[in-house]
Specification:
The complex is a heterodimer of chains A (418) and B (132). Chain A has 418 residues and is mostly helical. Chain A is built from 20 helices and no strands. In chain A, helix 1 runs antiparallel to helix 2 and helix 2 crosses helix 3. The chains are: A mainly alpha (418), B alpha+beta (132). Chains A and B meet through helix 2, helix 3, helix 7 and helix 8 of A and helix 2 of B.
Chain lengths: 418, 132
């Protein structure tokens, strides 16, 4: 084998880390029985590779090489520490015994990564810790990268990960896929984490850009991984939903970074391949008859994606889908979206009535989109003064810069009408 | 990423140990440093002599003033500096949390700042990249 330059090795290791670290880590957790030890051992194996591969070349199958090296490193470390600690000595004996029990120890088991997903998204961890752990252990992102994406200080994020790992250790959270009885609920938790990552990327709650592409890409990657490992209808539904929403990303903002509404978007820019993939997944999920809210939301997104314009959109079907969605998931935000669909289907007056009822209930009082939508319907009905006060209320609540610019622009155009 | 790890210790703590205690501490710390070195994480490191050996320089009334003693009189004083090569902040935390030195005093971990851009800009201001 020929020598490789340090830069070459470093680059291929970095790429390997991003693409394969979750597989390697997942196998190591099974082999070593401990998340911290597995992570340590993996990091060491990557460090060893940096030196060894420069001299010996990059192995043909780097993953088994890294797993095997990591396992030896772990045994080595444990043996060193066991000189003063009997508990550690027992772990070494356990790992070594395992080695004899299973001759094909480096074999990877597909379920390993699924088990890792269920550890990272365990309900005993706070939601923001589940998100951080998933992105770090499954997507191979660094603490600093995750912190930047979520606009939090790196020490805050690091602390979440430290605490989450301590909880996993203290509560002895098992490395396993939940049984059939717990699976639906636990899977729901995993889907929620993935969708949270997606939404954070898709409509960042604060900051200066409308989308943060990296997080949407990571969420779709996670969705694909989960679909590959566990092709349940709602997994298909969520993947479809993310693909369909993301298919519009090129047309959602103008070149100046301003928000473009669905109505004005250039549909030629929509990603046709992603739409086709999303639609096929939705159809598959709907055919299963055991789908849930993600599939229904994806079905709504699919109706939009397949229409040539807002006028040509099948609003009747969208209203029907919202009705079904509300039957399984009561949420004022879904009701708001349904009101928009009703406004498109039966006219702004009907939509406005529903929104006023919703606002009167108080739950959406501080939700800027409820007021922005109301403003929009009033504007279409020529009720300019009401439109203005709703837009102003929305403007006072909005936190994202492009949306703020959009609302200011709306207010300005109302001025011209007067 | 490089992380600067600052190890603090109470003045006198090390000096007041019995010889056996001192040897045990040094042996386990050096042993772990070797482990860090073998795995390519130990970028640089130095132990510091006691704070009584420190000199502090500062700018006062347009000139440099020199005092003896450490800059800040705190309960714990800087005892050593380790430059760690780690993948990310949590990796650095994990590596240092296993350092036996943690048993003897607190450690502070600070990521190294990347000054490359600032240096480039500064060189530009100083005309270093101009065609000669």
């Amino acid at each position: 084998m020929s020598d490789c330059s340090p830069i070459e090795v470093r680059q291929s290791l970095e790429a390997l880390y991003r693409s394969d670290s979750s597989r390697i880590l997942a196998s190591l957790v099974r082999l070593l029985g401990d998340l911290d030890l597995a992570e340590d051992a993996m990091q060491e194996a990557f460090s060893v590779a940096l030196n060894v591969w420069q001299k010996g070349g990059i192995p043909e199958n780097p993953r088994p090489w890294l797993i095997s090296t990591a396992r030896f490193k772990a045994i080595d470390v444990m043996r060193r520490r066991s000189r003063s600690d009997t508990a550690q000595r027992n772990i070494v004996l356990h790992i070594e015994a395992q080695q004899f029990a299973n001759s094909q120890i480096e074999e990877e088991i597909e379920d390993d990564r699924l088990r890792l997903i269920f550890i990272c998204c365990h309900p005993s961890l706070p939601p923001e810790a589940q998100v951080a752990l998933t992105l770090r252990e499954l997507c191979g992102l660094t603490t600093e990268e995750i912190a930047r994406a979520f606009l939090v200080a790196p020490p805050t994020l690091a602390q979440r990960i430290v605490r989450a790992k301590a909880t996993i250790r203290e509560k002895r959270i098992p490395f396993e896929v939940p049984g059939p009885r717990d699976l639906p609920q636990r899977l729901g938790g995993v889907l929620q984490v993935i969708y949270l990552v997606f939404n954070e990327g898709y409509s960042a709650t604060a900051g200066t850009e409308v989308t943060r592409l990296d997080l949407t890409r990571e969420a779709i990657r996670l969705g694909r991984l989960l679909y590959e490992l566990l092709p349940e209808p709602e997994v298909m539904g969520l993947l479809a939903l993310m693909l369909l929403q993301d298919s519009r990303s090129a047309s959602r903002t103008s070149s100046a970074g301003d928000l473009v509404l669905l109505e004005q978007q250039n549909r030629a820019l929509w990603n046709k391949e992603q739409i086709a993939e999303g639609v096929a997944l939705v159809e598959g999920a709907l055919a299963s008859h055991s789908f849930g809210p993600y599939t229904l939301q994806a079905a709504i997104a699919a109706v939009h994606a397949e229409a040539d314009s807002t006028a040509a959109t099948d609003w009747r079907q969208i209203v029907m889908l919202y009705d079904r969605l509300l039957r399984i998931q009561r949420s004022p935000v879904i009701e708001l979206n349904r009101a928009v669909a009703i406004a498109m289907y039966r006219g702004p007056e009907s939509g406005l009535g529903l929104i006023d009822e919703l606002l009167a209930r108080g739950e959406l009082e501080n939700y800027h989109l409820a007021h922005a939508t109301r403003g929009d319907l009033c504007r279409r009905l020529g009720r300019t003064a009401e439109a203005r006060s709703s837009y102003e209320r929305a403007l006072a609540l909005v936190q994202q810069e492009p949306e703020r610019r959009f609302l200011r622009e709306r207010l300005r155009s109302l001025q011209e009408i007067l | 990423m490089k992380y600067i790890c600052l190890a603090y210790i109470q003045p006198g703590k090390f000096e007041n140990m019995t010889e056996n205690e001192r040897h045990a501490m040094l042996d386990e710390c050096f042993d772990y440093d070797d482990e860090l070195r073998a795995n390519g994480h130990f970028s640089a490191g130095e132990a510091l002599q006691p704070p009584s050996s420190a000199m502090t320089l500062y700018w006062k009334n347009g000139k440099v003033a020199v005092t003896d003693g450490p800059y800040a009189e705190t309960k714990e004083q800087l005892g050593g500096v380790l430059v760690l090569d780690a993948r990310d902040l949590n990796h650095a935390i994990q590596l240092i949390s296993r350092h036996p030195g943690v048993k003897y005093g607190p450690w502070e971990i600070r990521p190294a700042a990347d000054l490359n851009e600032m240096i480039r800009e500064s060189e530009h201001r100083r005309g270093k990249d101009a065609v000669r």
